[in-house]
Amino acid sequence: MATATNSSNKTPRQLVESVLTEQRTEQLWTANYSPVIPFSSQNFDIEALLPAILYMARFGLRRGRGNFIQIFGDKADIAAVSTKLLELYGNKTLIGFKDNNGPQILGDLLLAWTLENKNHTEGHNQQPVARVFPSHYFASWVDLPNKVSFLRGVPEFLTALLADESDAEWVTTGKPGGSFPIGVSKFDDNKLLAIFAQGTIIGSKHTSNLGGDKFDDNQANAMGIEELLAVRLGLACEAAPLKARDVIIYEGRNKHIEAISNQRPIASQASARLNEDLTTIIVNYGQVIPRQLLLRMLESGISLGLTNILLSTIPILEHWLQHGTVPKSSDQQPWPVFVDASSGQNKQLRSLAEHSMLECLRHYERLPVITMLLRILYEQARCDRKIGTELPPITPDASAWLNLLGSIYQQRHPRAEIIEDKLHDDWKRLQDALQANDAYAEIATKFSQDQEPSPALNLAQTLCDLMGDKLQKGQFNSVLDSAMLRDQPHGLAIARKSRRTEGGVTQSILQRSIVLSPTLLDFLVHSHFYQAAQRGQPLSLPDFLQLIKTRYGLCVDQAPPGQPIAQTLLQTNKAWLERRLRDLGLLAGVNDAETMKHLRPRYQASN
After folding, report:
1. HEC states along 264-333?
2. Exposed/middle/buried for 86, CB within 10 Å: 0-12, 13-18, 19+?
3. Is the pTM of this model over 0.90?
4. How far from 73 is each of 83, 112, 232, 240, 343, CA to CA, in Å?
5. How do the domains of the chain map onto residue ranges?
6. Residues 74, 508: Cα–Cα separation, whole Å
């Protein structure tokens, strides 16, 4: 009987391992490349990021396993959590829930303000709890999700972004200066912790004391129910989670990583804009905007920033592929997309936005091949006898490193021909192995040396085809959908299924369109009104529309390049946005003159 390891029955990965070796395949068989995008290309939950960020801000290390499962039980649901909390605090700080309906009422409060079930389901017994709302610092003591790796490295990236160290490989613990240092001994040292740590007393200046922080019950009357429930839930876990103990592959070696990587994306302009926007909201509005609205605004702002980083990577990597260099930060531009300001209510605007996003995705779906090409060149350059001793730094900014790989790819480097010869041999041996296997013969004949001048690019495309859409294009689409908070009330995108017939074959496709949710408009107006005020300028509606196009590529009253849109539809789209801004109380017009329509915040900055 044939086995999976026989030549005719090898899996795609086994076949690649037989040609490139198991160790090299381990390096290449992934959708991730942190020097380009410093988080995993997989789905994640933006709404679960902030507790992990609060933990890293306080203790300066990546979060590991905590006590939630030990205290509340494996697959604990709302009913189990409310029962345990009443057992712990029923005679102390959760008084009034002892009658027959008390546990159910407490469960409803937890479900409304503090915890969320898996798959966003309702009810107390249907599903285990999956995430905790970050309404207070003590939410960071609750290790939900129970594996921080489910958040795909996004909390680490955002923590490093806010810490804003320009030249460190790892974010420095306890380093003074800036608004968001990590591993602090005083909550006021970190502006984010200062907002969420009301009533909290640091029990020890040593961050190794994970259970030292205490809550001052005398301040409970000044806090909302959502904050108090988070406090009781966190304290029930007895201590903050341990530091991370997982193992990653770093420079070809297994390494325990507890510190927070300071890796930045190559989309440095988009990254800097996310940092500026989050800093503006947290520092100047964090204490005055109601907690629940603030959380939604931050999530919307993070969604916009991460989406901008991902889409801005498209023109950067396309430029690298053509020229072998990464554009300077000042030359980087966001990818322009048309925004449906009606949020799907106007069918014409929705269709235009879907078409714009479809064109964007055609380019975005090329990224897996380019990042695979970079991994291939990286593996060769790192192991090269001469190049390997003179490598530029990868962290925090990998531009010099990618420029080196570009010089090899474009045949400008003295060792380029040697590396190309090695990769040609690899690709030819892989092609031969594919041709000998009926299951993969079609992939083997898909590319030839005449079609692509670079064996490295041929090898990259072949490996992506062997991995399949699920492990490449599917993963990239997952991280983009997660970043956009697709179909969430405060998200950046909505989607609908439609049917398309090509070549006589009808298939179902997902049509995405970019929209502006109320919380995102709140985030944008408050952030940019404050920044304009600091320059001594008002923020007019035309200035706002130009600003969001320039900074994020969001086109409302202008058509993206290459997409002709009738002027009447552009004006209709603008009218939709203007109406929504007025309804939200974010727009004041002195008269009908466009320049006299000024944006205004609903909350006054504290600074």
Report:
1. CCCCHHHHHHHHHHHHHHHHHHCCCCCHHHHHHHHHHHHHHHHHHHHHHHHHHHHHHHHHCCCCCHHHCC
2. middle
3. yes
4. 12, 21, 17, 17, 42
5. 46-256
6. 39
Amino acid identity at 599: L
Q: Amino acid letter at 155?
A: P
Question: Mean pLDDT, 10 residues at a time, over the chain (607 residues)?
Answer: 50 92 93 94 93 94 92 92 90 79 91 90 90 94 89 94 90 85 91 94 82 91 91 95 70 63 96 97 95 95 98 98 96 97 96 96 96 95 86 92 96 94 92 86 68 82 92 94 96 89 74 97 97 92 96 97 95 96 89 78 91
Q: Which helix (H) or strand (E) holds 508?
A: strand 505-514
Distances (CA, A) of 174 to 35, 182, 183, 192, 450: 25, 6, 5, 15, 56
Cis preceding linkage at 518, omega within 30: no
- pLDDT at residue 6 in the model: 47
Name residue, tokens 């019950």: 217
What separation in angstroms does the CA of 511 have from each of 31, 338, 353, 585? 23, 14, 9, 31
- Give the pLDDT confidence score for residue 206 in this predicted structure: 75
Instruction: Tell the burial category of 288 from Cβ atoms under 10 Å away from its Cβ (0-12, 13-18, 19+).
Output: middle
Taking the C-alpha atoms of residue 343 and residue 492, their distance in angstroms, rounded to an integer, is: 10
Fill in the DSSP letter of residue 148. Answer: G
Tokens of 399: 């531009």
Token pair of 605, please?
Answer: 């900055």
